[in-house]
Each structure stands twice: as C-alpha cells, then as structure tokens.
C-alpha cells in the first residue's frame, strides 16, 4: 500500500520512467507482432496436399540444419510407388521446380518467383490449379500457363529457361501462377527429387495418411503436414523474410538498450532527488532492505503501468510499421497482421523487468542513505564519483575500447554489429563517467561570461560544479541520442564511399554482364560471352570423417560450389578449396572427397589444391561442365569480360556495365534498404532519447522549485530565472552532445580501417553533418522547452 501511495503522490517524479517504459514496450510489442505475423506460411501451391515427403536435411559448417539433400531418380522411384499405395492418397506427385520466365516484346516478363516458376504439369494438382482452357502438355515443346499471362491457347510463347530462349506452344491455361511443362521436360530440367506431394482422396484422414507415409519413407527422409509444409518457401520470399527480420530485430535491440539506459538514468535521477525523504524514512525506523524493496516496488508498479499502456500503443502502431516494411519490400506477399498473446506477454515482462533492473542501482544507493540526510539538502550527496562508479565506468570503457578495436579486425558480416555493440558500451561508459567531465567543462564554458557582472552564468556554473551527478543524469539521454545518430548515419556514409570504391577497384577495366529482369544468366548468355569469368553456382553436399564425428552424426555438410570455366580450375575430377573451407571439412591436398550434387548423384573428386581464401575465386571450385551435368537448372552469376574482349547484350534480360557502373549498381541494390534501416533506427534512437531528455529536464526543473523560490525572493525576475534554466539546459546538452560524438568516433574509425583493408582502398571516416546537427538541435529544443515550461509553471504557482 505504501508503494502505491508513493507512486500516486509522486506521479510527476515517475512520469519520465513511465513514458520511457511505455515507448519502449510499444516498440518491442510492434516488432514482436510483426515478427510473429511474418513467420513462414504454407504456400498456396501446396494447399491441396495432405503432406509432403522431403529428403534428409543437411547441415552447414556450423552444424545448423540447412538444405534438403535431393533424392536421385532411382532413390525416389520406390518411395513414390510406396506412397501411391497409402490408403487415402489419390496420387503421389514428384514436384520439379526450375527457372522459367516468359519473354514478351523482347523483354522478360517481371516475375519475382521466376527462379522456381517452372514445374511438371502434375504439380498443378497440389494447389489445386484447374485447367481453365485447353489440355495438359504432352510433348516437350508444349506448355500450360497462368491465364493472367494473356497467352491464348494455340499461340507460340517464348520462354526463358536455363538453356536460354525456347519456343513453346501454349496448349492450356490454369487459374494460378507458373509454367507447367510435360513431366519428361521437367525431369530433364531438375533431375533430383526434392519434394513428393501427397494428394488426398476427398474426405481422407490426413493423420492416417501422414502416419502411413512416415512408415514408407522411414529413415530416407521425413514427412511434414499442416503448418510444417511452410518449410518450403520460394527463395525470394525467404529473402524478404530474412531482410524484414533483420530490420525489426535491429529495432527491437536498439529499443531494448535505449529503454534500459533511459529508465535507469531517470530512476537514478528521481531517487537522488528524494534523499531527504528517504533519510526521513530511515529516521523513523525504515531498514535499508525496506528502502530497497520500496524503490524496486515503485519501479515495478511504474513498469507494469507503462507496459500495459505500451502494449496497447504498440498494437495500434503495428499497421504503420507494416506499411513502412511493405514500402521497403521486405515483407512476404500478402502478409497480414495477427495478434497472438506471446508478443504482449514478452513485451510486458521486458517492461517490468527493465524497470526493476533500472531501479536496482537507484535502490542500492537509496539503501545507503543515513538518517541524518533528512536534515540535509537532497543534493548534498550529488558530488563527485563513488569508488563503485569509478570501477564500473573504467571497466565498461575498457570493454568499449576492445570492441572498437575488434570492429577493425572483424569480418565484413560482423563489422556493423561490432560497431553498434562498441558504441552501446561506450555510451554506457560515458554516462557512468559523465560527472568527471561536467564540472570542468562547465567551468570552461562559463568562464567567458564570469566578468559580465550577471548572476545567471554564476548560478549555472555553481549548479554544475556543486551537483555534477545530477547533471550527469541529465546528460545521459543526450549522449544516447547524439551517439546513435552519429554512429548510424556515419556507418551509412562510410559504406557509401567504401564499397563502390572497393568493388570498382577489383573489376577495373572489365565489362560486366549482369542479369536485367531475370534471376541469373542463362547458357545462351554465357555462349554469347565466351571469354571471361562465368561462375556457375550450385549447392552440393559433402560427408567427410570430420562431419560424421560432429554432433550431427551422419549428416552431410551443405556448401556453395562454383563451376568455373577458367582453365586453371576447369579440370575434370578435381576441386580447388580455400583454406577455411578445407579446414572446416577436414580436407587436405591430394585427398578424395565424395560430393553429392542436386540430381542426387555422388561424384568423387580429388582436392587438387588448397589455396588462400579468395572471394573472387570461390571456396570450393570445380569444372563448370561438372556442375552443369548434375544441376541443369543452375543459372550463371555475373560474367566478367576482360579488357580487350567484346561483351554482348544481344540476349534479352542482360545489361552491360563498366567497373564503376557495376560497383554503384551492386551497392544501390541494397542501398535503399540500408538507408531506410539507418533512418528508422536514428528516428527511434533520437526520438526516444529526446522524450527522455524532455522528461529529465522537466523532472529536474520540478525538483528545483525551492531554489527558484529562493532566487525569486532574492530579487530574481521571471525572465532571469527562465534564462538561467535555459542556459543550464543548453550547457548540459552541449556536454552530452560532445560526449555522444566522441564515443562514436572510435567504432567508426575502426569500421573505416576494416573497410580499407577489406576493399583495398583508402577509406576515411565520413560523418553526416546534417543528421548530427538535426539530432543536436532537436534534443536541445526539447530539453529547453521542457525545462522552461516546467519552470514557468512552477513560478506561476509560487506567485499564486
């Protein structure tokens, strides 16, 4: 009851923490709801199936489950025969999926799912898609298409497949997407069997079908049904889900950190202003344990209230975030918002937990308040730094420096995350050590005004020097706001310069043939450009002694294999490995290694060489003809035509670029998403911190109402007091902004150094001055307005 009474009577002191928890929980709720709504769903073309039989699953080098390992035709035949005999199964359909894309008016028809749009006609039954007109394809040059394509039955249609453009006769249309060929043609395009779909009889028992199917498949694979069929996602949908999850994960992590940071600083400030009250409680017999329990209880109540309101606000804001993500094209097609209980429960638990954790430090300090503090000013204990804060601040600073150094030496995939973690750590260090800087900086900045004879500069200087810890609590959210604005905008600007320069340097003098409206280059494009690098990628499976000894005993390791036409690597029966790949697989030069390809066939290759890692060469390189023989559906990557040779764009669906154009186009592919992500994170970090700054300044102004009364009694006018409040706030924001910039420079410098090494170009540190100025001005305006508003209101009440 005492805790509830305290919260009710001192609501203005807890308002800042309440708002901080509310905003943080709202952000976390929104991101968790979007995450839950974006989970993989059963694709429409599998809706008519009772279950799917899938081959065994391979693992990556780290042991995580990845690709399914296709059956060969001979391995699949007995399974199909057995599954067709399962009671309740009308048919067992082998689902072949491969590249197919119509060419109209000399250009590829836009289709995100073109990489897996081609199928045998039997696959249409899985949806089921019905024939709208015509008949099923019987010959290799016949095709059934989606009626939305507008191709009439009996017409000729140019379809791009892996081999290139081919003419097909349209013999039918269906009411769903895709290109449906004869089963013989589909089997030639994708010989391996990755999926066997079970089409049920009308009214059949799905559970009985699944049970019987599992007995037929046995240890040769697995059977999935219901939501388990969502495992089969087109690559482009899975890529969008991955990008969306990465974006909202970054938002959630940043929101969580900012919430913890802001709530902790606010509760420390609020508790520090109550030392006289706590001293009085100690005088009447309250024990340190009771004081600590009271502080934590108040925080829990505030956290619970903020969490409840935050959950409601988060759910209400979810459509807005979904609209933004759809605008960035990082959501699966047709994604709808679904509200489940777990995102709300998790967000609420985080809100309450963050409040209690944030109050722990404040409660620990409050428990040490002596009864004599009841007779002293609340600010008397706000001087200097305690031993514990010195130790914590220097320890965190050391960790931040190590992370900043690690940013320069980390891999490209880890560099951004390392820079963010380094900045977070240094922001915490700066907040802990801020009392050390506030007083000296306050003296320096107010020194020029000391000879003017005005009282305001003297009062501002005295306040900062006498109460550095209170000022440090006000500085903390400013450090976070400016620090994240500098970091995120600086990362984008630095990468904008580094990556195109590095890529252009790697391919200088070459002409690059890139896909334009297609997911890759066909063999026709490769034949038109017979000179230059034309890597043919495929996914293959290796089972070595090292893999069998791992926790996933017996599971093959899936890896990216490149087929090369470079005479140095294009040698039958041989493979060239990078040092890292060879180490992961436990292979050495001269060893034989069995490699299973996409058609289910296993080929034994000899490790001809183990060379230093080179992304331009690839980690596992074999002869191009070997990949083409075992993966007829694979498409070729960009073709790099050297200087002196002529590149051709005569085949539809390709574009030619010089080194600079290629580098810029390659960077701009993800630049829009990168810029949008950075801007969203900046808005979240700065906006959240600005709210915290305004709340902190309002709390501080409210806590100094006695000071204002004394200064007014001594002859101070309202204008002078408001000017003094604004001056102190400006000085605090200036200190926070300076520290915010300083803590981000080491991680950004480390990132620039790492990019210089990775791109073999001179990459300097680049900052976005516009974003930094906007962040500082926005923070300053919010702080000054909040301080003046509360000060003015307090003075009016005192006058009344």
TrEMBL record:
- Short name of any one Pfam family annotated for the protein: FtsX
Q: Which residues cross the membrane?
A: 12-35, 247-269, 299-325, 337-360, 390-412, 418-441, 471-492, 677-700, 721-745, 765-790
Query: According to its UniProt record, where is this protein mainly located?
Result: membrane
Recorded superkingdom: Bacteria
Keywords attached to this Swiss-Prot or TrEMBL record, sorted alphabetically, are: Cell membrane, Membrane, Transmembrane, Transmembrane helix
Please give the InterPro entries that the UniProt record associates with this protein: ABC3_permease_C, Macrolide_Exporter_MacB
What compartments host this protein? Cell membrane
Q: Which GO terms describe its cellular component?
A: plasma membrane
Q: Name one GO molecular function term.
A: transmembrane transporter activity
Task: Specify the protein's topology with respect to the membrane.
Answer: Multi-pass membrane protein
Task: Identify the residues that the record assigns to the ABC3 transporter permease C-terminal domain, covering every copy.
Answer: 250-370, 680-798
Record family assignment: Belongs to the ABC-4 integral membrane protein family.
- PANTHER family linked to this entry: ABC TRANSPORTER PERMEASE YTRF, MEMBRANE COMPONENT OF TRANSPORTER-RELATED
Q: What is this protein called?
A: ABC transporter permease
Q: Please name the source species.
A: Actinospica acidiphila
Lineage of the species this protein comes from: Bacteria, Bacillati, Actinomycetota, Actinomycetes, Catenulisporales
């Amino acid at each position: 009851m005492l805790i509830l009474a305290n919260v009710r009577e001192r609501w203005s002191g807890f308002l800042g923490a309440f708002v901080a928890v509310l905003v943080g929980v709202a952000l976390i709720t929104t991101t968790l709801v979007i995450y839950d709504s974006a989970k993989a769903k059963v694709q429409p073309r599998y809706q008519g199936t009772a279950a799917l039989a899938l081959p065994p699953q391979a693992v990556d080098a780290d042991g995580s489950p990845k690709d399914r390992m296709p059956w060969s035709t001979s391995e699949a035949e007995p399974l199909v025969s057995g599954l067709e005999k399962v009671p309740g199964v009308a048919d067992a359909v082998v689902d072949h999926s491969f590249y197919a894309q119509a060419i109209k008016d000399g250009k590829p028809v836009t289709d995100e799912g073109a990489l897996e749009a081609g199928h045998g006609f039997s696959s249409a039954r899985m949806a089921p898609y019905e024939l709208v007109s015509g008949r099923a394809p019987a010959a290799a040059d016949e095709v059934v298409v989606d009626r939305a394509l507008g191709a009439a039955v009996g017409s000729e249609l140019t379809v791009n497949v892996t081999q290139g453009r081919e003419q097909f006769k349209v013999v039918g249309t269906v009411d769903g997407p895709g290109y449906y060929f004869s089963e013989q043609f589909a089997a030639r395009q994708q010989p391996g069997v990755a999926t066997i779909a079970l089409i049920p009889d009308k009214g059949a028992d799905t559970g009985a079908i699944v049970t019987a199917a599992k007995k037929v498949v046995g240890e040769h694979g697995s059977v999935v049904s219901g939501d388990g069929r969502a495992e089969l996602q087109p690559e482009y949908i899975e890529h969008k889900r991955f990008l969306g999850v990465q974006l909202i994960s970054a938002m959630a992590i940043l929101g969580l950190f900012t919430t913890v940071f802001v709530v902790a600083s606010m509760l420390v400030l609020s508790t520090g202003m109550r030392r006289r009250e706590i001293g009085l409680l100690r005088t009447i017999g309250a024990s340190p344990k009771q004081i600590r329990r009271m502080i934590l209880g108040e925080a829990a109540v505030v956290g619970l209230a903020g969490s409840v309101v935050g959950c409601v606000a988060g759910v209400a804001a979810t459509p807005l975030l979904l609209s933004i993500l759809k605008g960035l094209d990082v959501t699966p097609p047709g994604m709808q918002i679904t509200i489940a209980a777990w995102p709300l429960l998790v967000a609420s638990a985080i809100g309450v937990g963050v409040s209690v954790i944030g109050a722990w430090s404040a409660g620990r300090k409050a428990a040490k308040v002596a009864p004599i503090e009841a007779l002293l000013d609340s600010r008397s204990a706000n001087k200097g730094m305690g031993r514990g804060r010195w130790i914590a601040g220097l320890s965190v600073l050391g960790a931040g420096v190590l992370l900043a150094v690690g940013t320069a030496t980390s891999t490209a995939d880890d560099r951004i995350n390392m820079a963010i973690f380094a900045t977070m750590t240094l922001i915490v260090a700066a907040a802990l050590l801020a009392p050390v800087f506030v007083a000296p900086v306050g003296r320096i900045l107010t020194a020029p005004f000391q000879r003017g004879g005005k009282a305001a500069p003297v009062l501002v200087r005295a306040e900062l020097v006498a109460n550095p810890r209170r000022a440090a609590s006000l500085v903390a959210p400013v450090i976070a706001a400016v620090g994240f604005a500098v970091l995120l905008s600086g990362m984008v600007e630095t990468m904008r310069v580094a990556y195109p320069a590095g890529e252009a340097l790697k391919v200088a003098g070459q002409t690059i043939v890139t896909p334009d409206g297609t997911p890759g280059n066909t063999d026709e494009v490769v034949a038109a450009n017979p000179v230059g690098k034309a890597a043919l990628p495929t996914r293959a499976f290796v089972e070595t002694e090292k893999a069998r000894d791992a926790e996933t005993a017996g599971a093959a390791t899936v890896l990216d294999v490149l087929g090369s036409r470079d005479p140095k690597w294009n040698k039958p029966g041989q493979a060239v490995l990078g040092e890292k790949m060879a180490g992961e697989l436990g292979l050495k030069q001269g060893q034989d290694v069995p490699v299973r390809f996409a058609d289910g066939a296993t080929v034994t290759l000899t490790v001809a060489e183990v060379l230093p890692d080179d992304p331009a060469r690839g980690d596992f390189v074999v002869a191009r003809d070997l990949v083409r023989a075992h993966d007829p559906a694979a498409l070729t990557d960009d073709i790099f035509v050297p200087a002196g040779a002529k590149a051709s764009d005569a085949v539809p669906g390709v574009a030619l670029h010089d080194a600079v154009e290629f580098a810029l186009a390659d960077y701009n592919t993800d630049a829009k998403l990168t810029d949008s992500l950075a801007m969203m994170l900046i808005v979240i970090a700065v906006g959240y911190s600005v709210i915290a700054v305004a709340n902190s300044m309002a709390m501080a102004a409210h806590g100094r109402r006695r000071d204002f009364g004394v200064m007014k009694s001594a002859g101070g006018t309202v204008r002078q007091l408001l000017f003094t409040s604004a001056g102190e706030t400006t000085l605090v924001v200036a200190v926070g902004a300076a520290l915010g910039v300083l803590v981000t420079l080491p991680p950004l410098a480390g990132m620039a150094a790492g990019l210089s090494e990775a791109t073999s170009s001179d990459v300097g540190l680049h900052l976005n001055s516009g974003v930094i100025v906007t962040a500082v001005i926005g923070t300053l305006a919010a702080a000054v307005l909040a301080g003046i508003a509360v000060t003015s209101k307090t003075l009016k009440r005192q006058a009344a």
